[in-house]
Design goal:
This protein is α+β, with helices and mostly antiparallel strands and 323 residues long. It has ten helices and five strands. Helix 2 crosses helix 4, helix 5 runs antiparallel to helix 6 and helix 6 packs across helix 7.
């Protein structure tokens, strides 16, 4: 056979395919997803077994901004877990549940907030329905404080609430207070009344009748009008005067709006603190023996003071220091 007729050998080349490892990143993603899903179901199960107070505490935790929780000092930043715990059963927890309860005492709960908002709406509605009181709506301020719902009755040059330099209540102020009295009775919360004045002083300064007496007298006059309007006198916990020491923000001390009456619908825990103030013992506090006048207490300073007082009074005062 000729060279042209020779057959060439058929060469078969096989390509070797190497199956490389694609990695396990998808397994990590799946594991993260399953962990998050399990955590979600766990939280839902715990919340379904929690009481309404515990759920309110958890909701309040998430409503608090992080910066506020850290800097406000209300204890919310000290909570290590947002889920009630500290015991085998979240419903019967002790440690974390106590922290949540302490935190909610410093802020209004959703129920308290709703009660106060309803009270505000009722007061505004009653004023709006009365043609004689309708023009006083602009002199009312409602806001929430750490002590409770604050209702401020502000003075103006056109419609002063009291006679100038007196505690005599103007007729429309009297009607306003007596209209609000039965509405304040609808809540069980105690009431605090505070009187404020502007910085215009009396001729005698603070030696005689001054803004201190005027603010206290006006607060007490407001108390009498509320009681006359039907307010339960047992709800009154505090009546005080602040003179011109607490001015409104961004107002001049002489601004007429500083002449105002504050009605505070107190939170229950604030009322309890006013009734039973906590006593602190520490450095600088007298010991029980000193408070009772017993024990090894040095009475020399007391005797020296009594002797100097005798000499100052010319020996007419009969003062004795009982050891």
């Amino acid at each position: 056979m000729s060279a042209a007729g020779e057959r060439r050998p058929i060469i078969i080349r096989r390509k070797k395919v190497v199956h490389r490892h694609h990695g396990g990143s998808w397994k990590i993603a799946l594991a993260d997803f399953m962990t998050a899903l399990m955590a979600l179901f766990l939280v839902m199960w715990i919340l379904s077994a929690a009481s309404p107070e515990q759920r309110e505490g958890v909701a309040e935790y998430f409503r608090t901004p992080l910066v506020t929780a850290i800097t406000s000092g209300d204890g919310s930043a000290q909570t290590r877990s947002v889920i009630p715990g500290g015991g085998p059963d979240p419903v019967h927890s002790e440690g974390e549940r106590a922290r949540i309860d302490m935190r909610t005492q410093t802020r209004p709960s959703e129920v308290q907030r709703n009660f106060f908002m309803d009270l505000q709406r009722r007061i505004e509605s009653a004023i709006q329905e009365d043609p004689e009181l309708r023009h006083l709506r602009s002199q009312l301020r409602f806001d929430m404080t750490r002590e409770g719902l604050r209702i401020q009755l502000l003075d103006t040059e056109q419609r002063p609430m009291f006679d100038v330099g007196s505690d005599r209540v103007a007729p429309y102020m009297r009607n306003l207070l007596r209209t609000m009295a039965p509405l304040l009775n609808e809540l069980d919360n105690d009431l605090s009344i505070g009187g404020h004045t502007d910085s215009m002083p009396y001729a005698g300064g603070y030696r005689g009748y001054s803004n201190w007496e005027l603010s206290s007298d006006r607060a007490n006059a407001s108390r009498r009008e509320l009681v006359a309007g039907g307010l339960d006198s047992a709800k009154l916990l505090r009546v005080s005067g602040f003179a011109d020491r607490v001015t409104l923000p961004e107002r001049e001390p002489t601004d007429p709006a500083n002449r105002r009456i504050e009605l505070l619908v107190l939170f229950p825990d604030v009322s309890e603190q006013i009734r039973r103030p906590a006593l602190l013992d520490g450095p600088g506090m007298p010991s029980p023996a000193a408070r009772l006048g017993g024990g090894d207490v040095d009475l020399a300073p007391v005797e020296a003071f009594a002797e100097s007082l005798r000499q100052a009074l010319g020996g007419e005062a009969a003062l004795e220091a009982n050891p």
